[in-house]
Amino acid sequence: MGKGRDNAVWTSVRPHLTFDLLDLLEEAASDLRTGDGEGGVDSYLAVLPSLRIALTHKSAALENPALEHNERLEFLGDALLQAKVSEALFLRFPDRDEGYLTVARSALVNTDSLAAIGSDLGLDRHLVLGQGERSSGGAKKRTILAGAFEAVVAAIWYDVGLEAAATAIDRTVLADLERLDLEVPLLDAKSQLQIHFAKAGLEAPLYSAEMAGPQHAPKFIARVTLDGGASFTGRGGSKKEAEQRAARAALDSLTSGGTSGA
Predict the structure, then answer these.
(1) 215-223 long-range contacts, Cβ below 8 Å, gap at least 24?
(2) What is the rounded distance in angstroms from the CA atom of residue 8 to the CA atom of residue 73?
């Protein structure tokens, strides 16, 4: 999945999809598929041979080397999502600058958003996972669901065509584009920092974090490094909280005209 995709805030509640994976596949491959679809996902494999790979997680391939896992398709799907969503935002918001469009795209295609779509589609019921991953609840993990959705988009693109894949994106990721609230400020510190550097034409801030303290009560220390070398730290009970505090420290320094890190 793409870099920096958790650095934005979606300003409206995303509506649940009212259809599942089979409905999405039916629309994508209806002109190609034969049969009545009663075989579920398997009934689409003749015209969507990449679908089986798209639904196979790396953990399954590690246990059975004969299987091909979905990471390459995930890479391809990520690229298509980035391009399609960028185009949609470019056309939908002609008066918005690059910084806003970057954050809006991140909000649409971050791990949480794509995982929610994957859950709505019921991808967890079709995933092929290793025994250990499945027993630990892997079918419900955000990263696995998000990656599988990207891979499914890529499978439709690769096996059916770009138009079918674009339609699948329109029905899922872009279904709630009109709900993006232009009047609600993006108050998330990481988002504000990203916008600041995008507007200035500088490299995006880089984050790193480490855990400290006992396992039962972990604390996280995050560092954000800015274009130019200045860095700032933040501490919190989660990695996300620590990164937000590091970003806030950087913003406070930029606002006050400071350049030194903490």
Answers:
(1) 222/246
(2) 25
Dihedral angle of Cα 237, 109, 208, 259, to the nearest 10 degrees: -100
Write down the catalytic residue from 74, 120, 133, 150.
Answer: 150
Q: How far apart are CA 121 and CA 128, in angstroms?
A: 15
Active-site option among 78, 120, 159, 188: 78
**pTM to 2 decimals?**
0.69
Distance CA 108, CA 172 (A): 10
Reported in sequence order, the residue ranges of the chain that DSSP labels E, i.e. its strands, are 206-212, 219-225, 231-236
Q: 21-179, superfamily in CATH? A: Ribonuclease III domain (1.10.1520.10)
User: Distance between CA 174 and CA 164 in Å, rounded?
Assistant: 14
Q: What is the CA radius of gyration of the chain?
A: 20
The domain segmentation of the chain, as residue ranges, is: 21-179, 189-256
Q: pLDDT tens-digit profile of 23-71?
A: 999 988 876 755 555 667 888 888 899 999 999 999 999 999 999 999 9
The string of pLDDT tens digits covering residues 71-100 is: 999 999 999 999 999 999 999 889 888 877
- The structure tokens 């880089």 sit at 206
Q: 189-256, what's its fold? A: Double Stranded RNA Binding Domain (3.30.160)
What count of other Cβ atoms lies within 10 Å of the Cβ of residue 159? 20
* Catalytic status, residue 150: yes
- Verify whether residue 78 is a known catalytic residue: yes
Apex CA 251: angle with CA 250 and CA 257, to 5°?
90
